[in-house]
Amino acid sequence: MTSAAPEARAARRCHNALNTLHSTHFFSPDLDREMAALGVSDPRAVNFAARAAALGAVGAGPVTAAFHNYRHELVARYLPALWETVPPAQALAARLRAVDATLRRQLGEETLASPEMAEAAELALRATEGCSRGARPLYAAHADLPVPDAPHLAYWHATTLLREHRGDGHVAVLLTAELDGPEALVTHTATGRGMNPDWLLTTRGWTREHWDAAALRLRERGLLDDTGELTERGTALRAEIEAETDRLDAGPYARLGAEGVARLTELGTGFARAAVAAGAYPADLFGKG
Predict the structure, then answer these.
(1) Contact residues for 189 (Cβ-Cβ < 8 A; gap 6+)
(2) pTM for the whole thing?
(3) What's the longest Cα–Cα distance across the chain?
């Protein structure tokens, strides 16, 4: 198998650094507090309010389609009724307040006001100029939102756009690979880089029976062995999925150029490490379980 080109490896490293900081808000007590003040206290409802609000007051169908690995019955339990409690505009405002509080707590006021944060925001926003809306619903919805004035919020906004741009492309690649939601989760966890199955079952709405049935289908395709590990074919498929995702997501990093990508990765890695050191993620979030 041909290894990824240096440009693709650099772009993926940059994405990983940016996404690490972006995703901290999903686990932040600040988000829970802001949503609870609006009448939303169920953790899964909080998740939908935060990530789906940019789509507007949609029903379960579009969200299931865009998220891909969530069980439709779980999504339908909350949507569209959730928007009667917290309209999308209010959810987006609450999310931004939560992000502001989270970054202040994780990174500190000095970092937020630093030239490095302003530089990172400028670089990340420049990268988003290389994104495209076509067939990317979550990216396109977030791209219609205004860029916040504060550099740390502008940086976080840009990381949101870059995360959803890559994610929309990744979903398209999973469909081409004929991996449904549970199968995508099982294979990703089997790589050792995915989330713990207990977290996935809780947040995505699948049961252990769904998980085991997906594993059986993957074994029948020769992608998973009897111990739950990826076979050679399974490992190759996951590598192909990531490589094709890289290809579909090349635009933002080509727009930035090699020097810009390297600098944004350096800055983003520093911010991400500080957030992780501040306890941004649960200790048992990742792993094969």
Answers:
(1) 195, 196, 197, 200, 288, 289
(2) 0.97
(3) 54
